[in-house]
Amino acid sequence: MLQLERRPEASTTLRWLSPLLALALTVATGFLLFLGMGKDPIQALTFFFITPISDLTGLAELGLKTAPLLLCAAGLTVCFRARIWNIGAEGHFLIGAVAASAVAVSVGEAGGFLVLPAVLLAGIAGGMAWAAIAAFLKTHLNCNEILTTIMLNYIALNLLLYAVHGPLKDPYGFGFPQSVMFADAALLPALINGTRLHIGLAFGLLAAVAVWVLFARSFIGYQLNVVGEDHRAAAFAGFSARRLTWFALLVGGATAGLAGAAEVTGPIGQLVPQVSPGYGYTAIIVVFLGRMHALGIIAASALLALTFIGGEMLQIAMNMPKAVTAMFQGMLLFYLLTCDAFIHYRIRFRRPLPAGLSQPAAPAGQEL
Amino acid sequence: MDLLTNILAATMVAGTPLLLVALGELICERSGVLNLGQEGMMLMGAVAGFIATLSTGSLAAGVVVAMLTGLAMSMLFAVMAVTLSANQYAAGLALTIFGTGLSAFVGAGFVGQSIEGFEKIAIPLLSDLPVLGRALFTQDLLVYFSWLVFAGVALFLRFSRGGLVLRAVGESPGAANANGLRVLTVRYLAVAFGGAMAGLAGAYLSLAYTPMWTENMTSGRGWIALALVVFASWRPGRLLLGAYLFGAASILHLVLQGLGWRSPTELLAMLPYVVTILMLILLSFDPVRTRLNTPLSLGQPYRPGH
Fold first, then answer.
1. Where are the transmembrane segments (chain B) (predicted)?
2. Which chain A residues have a beta carbon less than 8 Å from that of B270?
3. Is residue B137 classed as helix, strand or coil in its secondary structure?
4. Which fold has domain A54-296?
């Protein structure tokens, strides 16, 4: 019969193979699903994964959607490595977008090279302030960060809706809930001329590099790792869990806030209610898929960015619901966690023993 | 008086889905398994129940299908979190993300359609009581059913052998296993009950509360229920009270508007979430009590023989 048995040592090969395996399983399930829906599966999968990135414009769009995911994921990596389950990237992102828009709208048509940094800093500060609430609730009032960050996401969404219906609403916008278009001085410069790709992607890549440096070269990164691996060992070593919690959440808030600011000052150019298609939540998948590693999250951000564009493509080309994106993302995470189980466990086939015989003792070294 | 009755009645209706999903999660957590997938299971229950009722015309079919769907979703979680010892936080999150996506995908063609939802049924005699009669005893069938489930869960935990087994597994799976209890089986059953209840809670939303399907129609109720279980310190009695308190908080903005309160709707709509955080803060004044009441093995995978 089949038995699950713990490996003597975690498998490094599977740790990196697991995301690819999960992707393969997701594609296979997608194939069956499209077949079941009576659509041509090859055509659908091509529209989903290949067509969006087959020309420069498509690649630029991919970079455009990679940027916010990568920024959010970089911050979440810092949190998740220390086992601080910050689900609040979506909220930090939205507040960052609102704060940046508030500055951009109030500056108005005034120009100058200081406008853009001020707008981006406002976004970062907004995200950090929102994360600080969760940090305070965790370190001083013992509130579970999962629940508080989720609640703060819903509150942030309502604040955004309030902003676009109230204080930041364009008075000449024919009643649409959105802000005025920002002045040129408040817009991010393009990375490739003629496309919508802006330097937000550079911010994302920088953030990923910063994460690598933090964990490979700094003491605080080491402390975060230790807290995540074994919080009692960290306490014995004298690492302050409280300080590390604040650090991780503030970094998470800063990067997601910057992502929100880059979204309104980049491709959108104004504050709208649909500023995020769920980047903050998708970034959670990115972190797991990217193995909480700088290079990994870059690749995973690009893949999940593709699911956003692929979903839109399927909606236009094959009249499928846009929710196909969220479904693919959920499936990917699901398969990933299942495959991850085999990093620590393996399946053993044991022939059932004839009656009367007892199970032979396992050879030494296998029972760990 | 009429206003009070209306507020009470609305509180009951708003509290019922919370009560249902939280009762399921309470049993699940008492076995030591933390399932953060409530939101995803509720959404799947809501969409499956709605589609079943729409296509068969039977509300009963909708309820059954919703519960089975919730159960099926919870089994996906159980395979990962119980059998494969995956991280329960990550597995639960995956379930919510997957359920949110799948429900939106499945339900895309059904947005905007409507059905005849559950009707209010007045219980003879009791419904003639002043104020309370119309608030408590002129409700739909599922409200009454939620009371039955509540009574069942409370009695099960307190008086039955099964309740003792469940608590033993949650407090100390190792000791329970040494005593010959099947830890993984108990955990599977607890997760399954949680899934069925979440599905039912979802069906309450799409078949009774607002008889239609919209994407993300649970709007965080699954998460609020998780906070509710902590708030109730894993006790059914407090859970009942808490569910209606949260229910009241979630209709507060409607009441305030009804009273002529002039405030932007978006700011009032964030009230339930603010109240949830306030409740969590209130609990923090007595961390010892919370820690004493938390099932000891909550969130920790268990593998017999290792």
1. 6-28, 40-57, 63-84, 91-115, 135-157, 188-210, 216-234, 241-261, 267-285
2. 154-155, 158-159
3. coil
4. ABC transporter involved in vitamin B12 uptake, BtuC (1.10.3470)
Q: Which two tokens stand for residue A328?
A: 């693919």
Residues of B in contact with A338 (CB under 8 A): 79-80, 84, 86
Taking the C-alpha atoms of residue A62 and residue A66, their distance in angstroms, rounded to an integer, is 6
Selected residues 234-253 of chain A with any CB under 8 Å from a CB in chain B: none
- The verdict on A150 touching B (C-beta cutoff 8 Å) is yes
Which among B84, B267, B283 is the nearest to A338, CB-wise?
A: B84
CA gap A47, A22 in Å, rounded: 20
DSSP code for A198: B
Interface predicted TM-score (ipTM) of this complex, two decimals: 0.90
Report the distance separating Cα A202 and Cα A132, nearest Å: 26
The domain ranges of chain A are 54-296
pLDDT of chain B, 306 residues: tens digit per residue: 577 888 888 899 999 999 999 999 999 999 999 999 999 999 999 999 999 999 999 999 999 999 999 999 999 999 989 988 888 988 898 899 899 989 998 898 898 888 888 888 877 777 777 777 777 777 888 999 999 999 999 999 999 999 999 999 999 999 999 998 999 999 999 999 999 999 999 999 999 998 999 988 998 999 999 999 988 889 999 999 999 998 988 888 778 877 777 778 888 888 889 989 998 898 877 778 777 888 888 888 888 765
Beta bridge partners of residue A6, listed in sequence order: A345
| Residues 6+ away with beta carbon under 8 Å from B227 | A147, A151, B276, B279, B280
* Residue B265 to chain A, least CA–CA distance (Å): 8
**3-state SS class at B53:** helix
Distance CA A353, CA A360 (A): 10
Q: What is the CATH number of domain B2-110+124-293?
A: 1.10.3470
Using a CB–CB cutoff of 8 Å, tell me whether A327 touches chain B: yes
pTM for the structure as a whole: 0.91
